[in-house]
Amino acid sequence: MNAPAPTDLRDWIRDVPDFPKPGIVFKDITPLLSHPDAFGTVIDRLVEAFADRGIDTVAAAEARGFIFGAPLALRLNAGFVPIRKPGKLPYATLALEYQLEYGSDRLEVHSDAFGPGRRVLLLDDVLATGGTMRACRDLVQQTGAELVACAFVIELTFLEGRSRLAPADVFSLIAF
Ligand code: AMP
Fold first, then answer.
1. What is the pTM assigned to this prediction?
2. Whose CA is nearest to atom 5 of ligand 1?
3. What percent of the chain has pLDDT above 70?
4. Domain ranges, ordered by start, for the chain
5. Quick one: which atom of ligand 1 is closest to the CA of 61?
6. Ligand 1 pocket: which residues have CB below 6 Å?
7. Alpha-carbon span 37 to 51, nearest angstrom
8. HSE of 15 in the Cβ direction (CA atoms, 13 Å)?
C-alpha cells in the first residue's frame, strides 16, 4: 500500500480514550508504525537532531522505546542498550526503583551496558509525567556514562514531564 508522505506527524497518532484506565487518553502509535513513510520520517528527524552529537549508545526502555531506539541506533552508528522490566536480562544487572502514580516499578540494565564517558542518548515513545525517563536517566548516571539527551517521539506538554528531567537536555518531535 502506498501512503502519501505525512505532512503533520500528529495525523498518524490515534487517541484512545480511557485506556488503560478511565481518564487516560492513550496515544496509540500503531497507525504511524504501519505507514513506512510516517515511521521513516520519525527516524529521519531523530537522526537529523542527533547525528552531530557524538552518540555512542542509544538506550530505550521496553517495550515501545525499543521500536524507535533500535533503528535510530543503527542510523547513528551507535550501539543499542535495552532497559528492561525486572528478571528479563540474563547477566548481572543494575536496578532502579521508581514511583508511579500508584505504587512503584523497577527497571534493570546490564551492569556493563554503559561505561564511564560513553555518550548516551535515552529514547522513549511518550513523555508523560517523566517518571520512567527519570529512572532511566538515574540508571545511566549511576554508571558514570554521559547523558547527552532524553528524546521522545511524543510529548504531552500539559503533564510537564520535562521539568522532572532537569537539568537533562529534553527533545521531542510531536507535542500535544
Ligand atoms: P511517564 O508518566 O512519563 O513515566 O510515562 C510512563 C510510560 O507510559 C511512558 O514510557 C509512555 O510510553 C507511557 N505512557 C504514559 N502516558 C501515555 C499516554 N497517554 N499514551 C501512551 N503512552 C503513555
1. 0.95
2. 128
3. 95
4. 54-175
5. 10
6. 24-27, 64, 124-132, 161
7. 20
8. 9
